[in-house]
Amino acid sequence: MRFQISRDNILTPLQVISGVVERKQTMPVLSNILVVAEGGVVQLTGTNMEVELVCVLEGAQLANEGRITVPARKLADICRSLPSQAHLDFALEGDKVHLRSGKSHFTLSTLPADQFPNTEDNPQDIEVRFAQKDFKDMLDATAFAMAQQDVRYYLNGMLLEIGNQVVRTVATDGHRLALASIASDLTLDVDRQVIVPRKGVIEFSRLLSDTEEEVVVSIGDSHIQSEVGNYKFTSKLIDGKFPDYNRVIPKGGDKIVVADREALKDMFSRASILSHENIRGIQLQLSDGQIQVYANNPEHEQAEDSLDVIYEGPELQIGFNVSYLIDVTNTIQEDSVKLSFSNASSSALIESCEDNGRLYVVMPMRL
């Protein structure tokens, strides 16, 4: 196998695909990228057995066909180290890959291509079409609330719900919940729910651009797939039942605060400096036209702050993990936010003041 390609044409695909490849693998071949030079094109594939990314390289000049796997990180680092506009000669000689560019010469170890896992060809029964920007916004609006390595494995991902003329993404780690929705053209009798694993959500979001260009998302019983530009994305789905998110969303909160989002976020950020390093708890106090925040830590340090807001109602004291509040105010893009409370033991509902299909639920803390 041998081909030539410009450094600039291979570097970005290598960096994107290397993001899927885990550094520590039980199978050595999973630390490698599969390089396939056949049919006049060169194709790179990376996988962690859960998420797979395939990219067809642009501008590759193929001399000899073949397939081999090479260490992902090392290949990416070598290409990154070469000067811009450099040309790379990629040649398989025996069981080694030789990379030559100008006076530079690198020799990489390989593993046979037949050791690389193949993703089964899975039938897809639902297709949903979005502008890339809209779908990326939905993923980014909810991804932060996904759990990480929770024993409740179904929380280590994002619910993708395809309903009748609406699509929702929902994520929760048991302490907070994020939901985003968008209108769709699909007409379904029964809602379809699938859970996309955390890694799949993150890598898919990275592929999408802030453009109106269309992306088609195909969903089957066990996999989700999409093609974005030269990339083909495939992710396994988590086999589990996602909690009924509608039961978590608080209804009828009668204490409603409207505040400037940026000012609120800044106040939370200041209070977080002196909050408990592990618990991260702060106390909010609502009173007419004002919200006050208090934080302290085991070193007996304290923070107090206040913000003028739109609020008319009874006083309320309620505790929260300040990190969760900062995450929400970072994610909302609009200028004003609405916070709805019922009592000191009920979750808060946080939304933009604009009706944009996004909402956030944060559970209270006892402090």
What is the CATH top level name of the largest domain?
Answer: Alpha Beta
Query: Would you identify the regions where 5 or more consecutive residues have pLDDT less than 50?
Result: none
Distance between the termini: 65 Å
- The value of Rg in angstroms is 25 Å
CATH H-tier superfamily of the largest domain: DNA Polymerase III, subunit A, domain 2
Within the largest sheet, what's the order of strands?
6-2-3-4-17-16-15-10
Please state the structural category.
alpha+beta
Q: How many strand elements?
A: 25
CATH architecture group name of the largest domain: Roll
Q: Total domains, how many?
A: 3
Tally of alpha and pi helices:
6
- Which geometry do the CA atoms define? elongated
CATH topology of the largest domain: DNA Polymerase III, Chain A, domain 2
The amount of beta strand, in percent, is 35-45%
* Average pLDDT for all residues: 95
Helix content: 10-25%
How is the biggest beta sheet arranged? 8 strands, antiparallel
Characterization of the model:
The protein is an alpha+beta fold. It has three domains: 2-115, DNA Polymerase III, Chain A, domain 2 (Roll); 124-247, Roll (DNA Polymerase III, Chain A, domain 2), CATH 3.10.150; 255-362, DNA Polymerase III, Chain A, domain 2 (Roll). 18% of the residues lie in helices and 43% in strands. The protein contains six helices and 25 strands. The protein has helices at residues 7-18, 72-81, 132-142, 198-207, 261-272, 322-331, and strands spanning 2-6, 32-38, 41-47, 51-56, 61-64, 66-71, 87-93, 96-101, 104-109, 124-131, 157-163, 166-172, 176-183, 192-197, 214-220, 223-228, 231-236, 255-260, 281-287, 290-296, 302-308, 316-321, 336-341, 348-352, 358-362. Strands 6-2-3-4-17-16-15-10 form an eight-stranded antiparallel sheet. A hairpin with a 2-residue loop joins strand 16 and strand 17 (231-236). It is elongated, with a radius of gyration of 25 Å. The N and C termini lie far apart (65 Å). The mean pLDDT is 95.
